[in-house]
Structures are given as structure tokens and as C-alpha cells.
Amino acid sequence: LVRNLEAVETLGSTTFICTDKTGTLTRNEMAVVEAWTPAGTLGVDGLGYEPDAAVSASSPAVWELGKGLALAAMRCSTGYAAHVDGRWQARGDPTEAAIDAFARRLGLDTEADRRGHLARLRFPFDPRTRRMAVVIDGMAVVKGAPDSVIPLCGNLDEVAALHVAEGLSARGLRVLAVAAQPMEAAGPVPMTLADVERGLSLLGLVGLEDPPREEVGPALAACRRAGISVAMITGDHPSTAAAIADAVGLRHPESPVLVGAQLPSDDAVLASTVDHDGIVVARVSPEDKLRIARALRCRGHVVAMTGDGVNDAPALHEADIGVAMGRSGTDVAREAADLVLLDDAFSSIVSGVEQGRATFVNIRRFLTYHLTDNVAELTPFVVWALSGGQFPLALGVLQILALDLGTDTLSAVALGAEPPARHLLDRPPVRGRLLNGTVLRRAFGLLGPVVAATTMLAFLVSLITSGWSPGEPFPSGDTLRAASGAAFMTVVIAQTANAFACRSSTVWPARLGWSSNRLLLPATSIELLFSLVVLFVTPIALVLGHASPPPAGWAVALVSGPLVLAVDGLDKWARSRRGGADESASRGVS
Ligand code: ATP
Questions:
Q1: Ligand 1 atom 15: the closest Cα is on which residue?
Q2: CA separation for the pair 395, 166 (Å, rounded)
Q3: pLDDT tens for each residue of 493-534
Q4: What's the DSSP call for residue 444?
Q5: What's the pTM?
Q6: Which among 51, 78, 80, 508 would be 20 to 30 A from 13, CA to CA?
Q7: pLDDT digits (tens, 9 = 90+) for 330-360
Q8: Alpha helix (H) ranges present in 441-519?
Q9: Whose CA is nearest to atom 5 of ligand 1?
């Protein structure tokens, strides 16, 4: 969903995509596959949010500890799994829905627990500290990233617990640590987070699997062919991030994995550090994201940055293209974004880039088409003005209006809807202005003058075959109207051919297929019909000031179409021989 129309154009010029991980590169379908307690581990065999899946524990004691861990984690969550429309789905944060499903799989009635135990106090998830807390039913629970929670716990060896968490992360799992401490159920409610976090004991760790999206691999390959660098910028653990980046093929073997806290403080150094395709930056804060977007832009990149949280809004604003998640993102992120991914998928960004490039090229197509027309329409006026009004106007004001509004509009719309060229993503990003040298040369140096010259020729030939000789005073009345009709029809027919010529600045229309733009044939047919109506329906023709041309005028008008196609074909052939076509192709001009 494009929220800001200009973003489509900028998308086509994107040179660097900073993507997050969950939901964009992965499916955002979390499932607890392993849980660790100080007494042993539990394994879960089953994905999805269904309450039944095989859970194995090394001993009954571990099973009981696992239940305590799952209950505490579930109470410190607001997301849950729900049976809707015949299947179990996540409501709220999928990470927390997976914890709810895990608790059910251990035999806990989480729904009854939620109804029966209301939280006395909640500290929501803080993306900076990466943990959240709740005071509920005589205990305080803290849940969050292991490196954030484990140092708060005094009941076991910190290094050993972090080592276990590291092992789970290295398998690509998202890992949460859960800690708790008893609180007097009827005692005063602690007022600060520090009170809640004092004296915690670690209950255990949960490892969640989130399978990578299958379509990411081909989308990344398309980015690389298109000269676009891709970086993963995530709040998750570096090992989890690296494992997922490897699984989807984002990381090159030599690509570094950086951590937000260790990013260089100097912006120029930061820019050169992160300006690498395949780089992974983990444990980033929203401020890090903002700095990375700014640094890459300062290096001349056109940056697309994804984000879903409230705090991502500044980074989305800073990037050339802010991309928010339609399904999992917050309203604030969506408000700040230029583009909303309705399916959250990375491959949709790549499709957006392709559409952006196609739109950019299409604007150039119809610019060429319109400017050519303008040259042909302006020439009769210039000749009339330079002759001091002696040479009659070949095209009057109302005829020009009829051409602009009646016979050009549909073709221009059809050119704007030209399907993306097949190899649009096999070229470097589109750069430069819309009005580039190719557009100006073709409109003002080639096609425009050809259409203008044939228009004036049709006018003169019609006058001469009607009995006028050069040097004599110009005729008026029916003779002049018929000559003007010839000029009018010449512009119409030449522009019809020009619409097909403008479909590409390098490929001849026959090679593209005359009907491969499904709108163009109907558009030009309607326009030709319109021009015949305004020429042959006498009252309208009288208002416009023209009449049906003499045979010689018709002949020039009819030749003008093939002539435009021939000149266009010769130009494209000559440029391809000189290598000019390659150059324009490499600049993204199809
Ligand atoms: P991604 O790039 O994968 O979308 P992110 O940048 O959105 O990730 P966060 O969701 O902020 O990252 O998660 C950062 C860390 O916070 C995670 O590694 C996890 O340990 C912890 N975490 C995530 N969700 C929760 C949650 N609901 N409760 C507690 N801790 C969480």
C-alpha cells in the first residue's frame, strides 16, 4: 500500500534495503521448540499455535519446572493463542501466542488462568532494555532477552545460563529468559521497575522457532541482480540474526555481524562500516536504526528501511522509503511510513522496487509521447508568427484542444500502464532526472520534428493540389479548412504510430508485440474513431475549423504513421549499433 505517491518513483531508485527479521524474512509464526530449566530441558515437537503437540521432558521434575516457567512467561504476556475460524491463531504478539500454546501443551488452562488472575501492575516491553515485567498473584515476573534478564538473577551461574542461551540462538531460535520473585499478594504494589527486578531467580529459557519465508531467497537474488544492497537490522540476538540471515541467503560468508552497542559513534565511520551488502546488525535500538539510515543516505544511497514499532517512526521518516508492516506493525509506524507491506513480506519490497522502476520508465514514455505532440502542435503557430501572420495557421486552437484532450489522453494513460519490462530488475537502479537526454533528444530532435514536418507537408500539399501556388495569396474558406483537416489527421495518425514507438526507447514496437500492451490498441482505436467523428460530423468540423482533406492530404496523413515508425526504427537500430541502447538500458530506460 503506497501512502505517498512520490514514493513509487523513489522506490525505483532504491540502492540499499535495511530489513528487519521477524515477519519480513521469516513467517512470524512462532513456536516454542525447546525450553531450558536449571534441572534439564524440554523439547516440543510441533509448530503452529495448536494446544496439542508432543512435549518431552528429561524427568518429571523438569516437566514441573517447565510448567512453572510456561505459567510465569504466559502471565507476563498480553498476546495469546485463540481458536478462530476453525484454526488456532495468534492474537497480539506471535512470540507471546507461542508461549501461550506452549503452556497449553504442558496441560495448563491458560484461558482460565487469565480470567482468574488479573495483573496488579504491568511494565510493557521496552525495546531499549528488551524486557517486560508484571506483578501478579503473589509474584513478580520479568521476561525478556537473556542478556538483559540473566544479569538480574542471583540464583545461578550467569555465564553458564548465557552459554545455554547462546547455543539456542545459534540454531536460529529467538530466546527469552523468564525470571520471577515472590511478592506478598496482599502487600503494597511496588511502584518502580527497579523494585520488581530486585532479587529475581531465573526460571528458565524458551527457544522459539520462526521458519524463514521461502520466497526470500529469490527476492534477495533479484536485489543482487538489480544492484541493491540488503542489510538485516534487527533487535534480536546476533547469533539468531546470523543463523536466519544464513538460512535465507542474505549473508555472504565474509559478511560481519555487528551489534548495535558497538557501532562507531562517528557517522562517517558508521556509514563505511555498514555500507556492505549482506551485513547483519543485531541488538539495534531505534536510535541505531535512525543513525544507520542517515549514514547510508549521506553516502549517497537511496535507503528503504523497514520498521514495525512505535520507536521506529524516526528511522522510517529519515529513510528515503519508510516501510511499515501492515499485519504486525503499530499504527505509529504505518503513519510514518511511505509504504505499508500488507503481507509483511520482504519479497513485496522487491516487487515494489520493480513497480517503482516500471513507473519511472512509464513516466518517461508518456513524457516522450506528449512532448513529441507538443512540437507538432506548436510548429504551425511558430510558422504563422514568424511570417507575421501571412502564412495561415495550419492548426487552430480548438483543433489543438481536440488533439490534446480527445486523441492523446487515452494513449498516454495506456503508456502509463505499460507492463514492467521483463528484465527490469537485471539493471542497476534508475538514477537521474525524468527528463533525461534520451527523452529530450527523441521528443525534440527526432520524433517531434518528423511529426511537425509531415503535418506542415500535408497542409501545403493539400493547398497546392487545391490550386494554390507558392507566391499567391493563401486561400481561405473550404480550401483552407480541408488543408487544416489534413494537418489535423496527420498529427492524429503520426501520434498513433508514436504511441507505439514510445513504448520503448530501445526496442522496435514489432519486437515488443503490437498488442502486448493490452490498453494501447483499444486506446488508439477509440482516438482514431474520435478524430473521424470530429472531422466528418459537419457541425463539429465547422466549429473546429476543418473539413475532410483532399486525397493528397489524406495520402501524406496516412504515410505519416509508417514514416514515424521507420524513423524510430532507424534511430533505435543506429543507437544499438553504437552501443547507445546498452547505455540507456543500463540506466534503466527500457
Ligand atoms: P526483528 O528484527 O526480528 O523484527 P525486533 O527488532 O522487532 O526483531 P524485538 O521484537 O525488539 O526485535 O526483540 C528484541 C529482543 O527482545 C528479542 O531478541 C527477545 O529476546 C526480546 N523479546 C521480543 N519479544 C518479546 C516479548 N514479547 N517479551 C519479552 N521479550 C521479548
A1: 236
A2: 79
A3: 999 999 999 998 888 888 888 888 889 999 999 999 999 999
A4: I
A5: 0.80
A6: 508
A7: 888 888 899 898 888 888 888 888 888 888 8
A8: 448-465, 477-501, 509-512
A9: 235
